[in-house]
């Protein structure tokens, strides 16, 4: 009986009962809804406020029982799914940022091009996506053609090429398998193209596809915890795999003296040298606060009374950032400011030798000052330099018909004096695969994308002396040695020589053409370029040289002849601008500023044995003693600028003799405004003739961020520092004046005489001609004297 009762309780209700209950509930819902009361709503306790229910007759006439949907009762409606959560990528790069200067042009039956990118050591790729903008030829056969996307030479995706979308600009998002990514990666695009089912020309003009270099690669990454280990330095504070601008806070825990500021500048210049082309932006935390996220450098003087770690000497240590478990803090510590400097010196000169979580420096020798123009990044100017010293040997090769060019970067001292000088001698040695038949192959040499010279790559039939071919081993390349010259004007402080092997494809005829990509070209590492014949001389001030290379301060790579003067006390913006400038100097020289000098306040203006950089913002009354020597002055809302005809010039080309286009200050403009603006001005030191001063100033402390943008540059910032005075607005740089008042370097007697004469007689002949005319006149004079003496003797 009990069992029967339980079974009746579990038995499902009849369908008619379910339908009746559903109808009653729907009618009740409509009735209550019409009175303004919803299920779950609490009624007002005041009866007078309760809604009046309709009468039974009214309900019968105004409310109809809705028709029942039996199917909806039998099968419940599915719950709508939520859209997937969109996770913003951690990194997004355009192909242009990854090194693709131009759109990819894929040609032929198997054309390809690629970009390279890296993943930081403390990151793991979890998702990757390419936002691709591309187009392809209408002649491609859709069934037999496609575009492959390869990651590290493994096919990740194949893009179809339907005929109805051909010839148009298309856009496609492609997810790439995350497991294909490593620390060093190659993203390659390969066109497999066919235009006919019969015999086809493998390099036919209709076989093409184009991929925009504005396409983007997006990466989602997970952070990989790294141990607190000094042997991994400079990781994670700088990782060479990361192509972005380095952004690194420097925290001043409890000491902001001149010596500690010198230590911070030394460290900033070291990281700037490591960052190189990426650029480095530093932010100063003078309040001792750690960043909320990421890594930072902390300079601290040990103080046991403040519950800080006690140290027994110059100390370096690495710990986790208490505000961010994935960030690290690099501690540079000492019992006093001098020991902090010693720890900083140990870091920038011996980081590769450090190990463990913390080290205490027991001994470090003083580094000898460097010699002028010996910066590691700069090309030697005292002897011929081999190409193998400037570029890795494996990068001197060009492979195949569509092989990329050989590019060689040159960083030169900006004061190489090329006025009325011969071109830079280049002893170019190269090898190439000799092709059969008659070809139009050539080696094209360019400087900064400007054509210089073309050398024919002679084929076997074109060679007059075939004895060389008989001496070559099978598969060897034919050696060539040629002499050429490069105008020094084309090789600015940061230049690029490009060597492109253009091999002509030999067509055999219908149904006989096949690509055998066995041609090779190679620039010999023993090739040389010689700058030793040029003196070091430059008219100053020159803000272009300062902005590009930090010259004349970087003439000595350790900055031993440089003093930076800051207000006393400096603001955090002043120190941030100072650190970013030191990073810029380090990027130019490739060496840390181990002998940098920092002074605070007006007393620093009395330095006479160094070139000076003044960084100031806000109240600048401490500079009033030099105001008559400055072409501009910013003091709060009061602003004074010197302007010239440079504002009206549309071309900023500077000839070898810059004096011919200088624009001295014509008038002063003074006004009051609360707007943010910054200036960079160069002039000769009032207390030490021949010494340089560059003033970096802003009316407001936050305005110095504009100077940082001008130093780092970028697509969103127009203009460059030029002349002797420039004003910096949020959108770019505007040169105001260009006036040369002194110079650096020395010219020989004859060259110096010619330089001086041309200043007053612009059409004067070269000193070679002047010397020849002088010698000719001297010879005529001697002949005349000899004749007179001869006649006198004969007459006597």
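^ structure tokens above, recovered residues below v
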């Amino acid at each position: 009986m009990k069992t029967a009762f339980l079974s009746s309780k579990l038995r499902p209700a009849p369908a008619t009962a379910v339908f009746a209950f559903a109808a009653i509930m729907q009618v009740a819902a409509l009735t209550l809804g019409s009175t303004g009361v919803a299920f779950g709503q609490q009624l007002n306790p005041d009866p007078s406020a309760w809604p009046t229910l309709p009468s039974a007759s009214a309900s019968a006439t105004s409310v109809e029982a809705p028709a029942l949907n039996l199917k909806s009762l039998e099968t419940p409606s599915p719950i709508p799914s939520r859209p997937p959560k969109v996770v913003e990528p951690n990194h997004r790069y355009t192909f242009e940022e990854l090194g693709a200067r131009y759109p990819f042009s894929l040609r032929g039956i198997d054309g390809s091009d690629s970009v390279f990118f890296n993943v930081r050591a403390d990151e793991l790729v979890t998702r990757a996506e390419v936002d691709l903008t591309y187009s392809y030829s209408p002649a491609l056969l859709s069934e037999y053609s496609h575009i492959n996307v390869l990651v590290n030479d493994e096919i990740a995706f194949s893009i179809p090429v339907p005929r109805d979308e051909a010839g148009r600009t298309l856009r496609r998002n492609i997810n790439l398998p995350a497991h294909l990514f490593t620390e060093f990666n190659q993203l390659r695009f390969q066109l497999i193209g066919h235009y006919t089912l019969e015999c086809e020309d493998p390099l036919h003009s209709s076989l093409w596809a184009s991929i925009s270099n504005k396409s983007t690669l997006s990466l989602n990454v997970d952070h990989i915890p790294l141990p607190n280990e000094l042997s991994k330095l400079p990781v994670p504070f700088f990782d060479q795999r990361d192509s972005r601008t380095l952004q690194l806070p420097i925290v001043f825990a409890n000491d902001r003296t001149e010596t500690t500021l010198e230590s911070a500048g030394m460290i900033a210049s070291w990281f700037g040298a490591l960052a190189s082309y990426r650029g480095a932006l530093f932010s100063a935390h003078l309040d001792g606060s750690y960043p909320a996220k990421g890594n930072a450098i902390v300079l601290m003087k040990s103080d046991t009374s403040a519950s800080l770690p006690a140290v027994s000497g110059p100390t370096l240590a690495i710990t986790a950032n208490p505000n961010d478990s994935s960030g690290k803090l690099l501690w540079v510590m000492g019992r006093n400011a001098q020991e902090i400097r010693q720890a900083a010196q140990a870091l920038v000169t011996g980081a590769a030798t450090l190990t463990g979580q913390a080290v205490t420096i027991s001994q470090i020798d003083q580094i000898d000052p460097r010699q002028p123009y010996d910066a590691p990044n700069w090309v030697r100017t005292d002897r011929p330099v081999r190409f193998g010293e400037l570029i890795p040997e494996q990068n001197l090769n060009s492979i195949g018909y569509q092989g990329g060019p050989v590019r060689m970067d040159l960083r030169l001292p900006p004061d190489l004096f090329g006025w009325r000088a011969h071109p830079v001698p280049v002893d170019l040695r190269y090898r190439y695969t000799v092709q059969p038949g008659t070809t139009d192959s050539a080696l094209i040499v360019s400087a900064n994308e400007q054509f210089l010279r073309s050398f024919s790559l002679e084929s076997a039939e074109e060679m007059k002396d075939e004895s060389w071919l008989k001496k070559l081993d099978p598969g060897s390349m034919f050696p060539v040695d040629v002499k050429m010259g490069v105008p020094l004007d084309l090789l600015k402080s940061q230049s690029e020589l490009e060597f492109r092997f253009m091999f002509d494809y030999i067509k055999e005829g219908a149904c006989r053409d096949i690509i055998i990509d066995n041609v090779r070209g190679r620039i010999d590492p023993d090739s040389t370029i010689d700058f030793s014949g040029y003196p070091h001389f430059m008219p100053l001030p020159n803000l272009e040289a300062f902005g590009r290379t930090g010259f004349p301060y970087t003439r000595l790579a350790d900055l031993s002849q440089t003093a930076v003067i800051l207000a006393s006390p400096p603001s955090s913006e002043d120190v941030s601008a100072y650190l970013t400038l030191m990073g810029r100097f380090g990027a130019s020289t490739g060496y840390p500023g181990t002998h940098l000098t920092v002074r605070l306040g007006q007393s620093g203006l009395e330095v006479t044995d160094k070139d000076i950089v003044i960084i100031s913002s806000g109240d600048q009354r401490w500079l009033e003693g030099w105001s008559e020597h400055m072409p501009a002055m910013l003091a709060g809302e009061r602003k004074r600028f010197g302007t010239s005809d440079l504002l009206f010039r549309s071309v900023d080309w500077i000839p070898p003799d810059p004096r011919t286009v200088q624009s001295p200050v014509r008038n002063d403009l003074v006004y009051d405004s609360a707007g943010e603006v910054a200036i960079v001005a160069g002039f000769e030191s009032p207390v030490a003739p021949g010494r340089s001063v560059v003033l970096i100033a802003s009316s407001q402390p936050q305005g110095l961020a504009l100077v940082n943008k001008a130093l780092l540059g970028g697509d969103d910032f127009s203009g460059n520092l030029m002349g002797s005075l420039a004003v910096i607005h949020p959108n770019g740089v505007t040169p105001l004046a260009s006036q040369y008042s002194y110079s650096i370097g020395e010219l020989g007697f004859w060259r110096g005489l010619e330089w001086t004469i041309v200043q007053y007689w612009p059409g004067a002949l070269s000193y070679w001609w002047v010397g020849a005319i002088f010698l000719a006149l001297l010879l005529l004079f001697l002949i005349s004297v000899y004749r007179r003496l001869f006649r006198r003797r004969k007459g006597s």
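The domain at 243-360 is CATH 3.30.379.10 (Chitobiase; domain 2).
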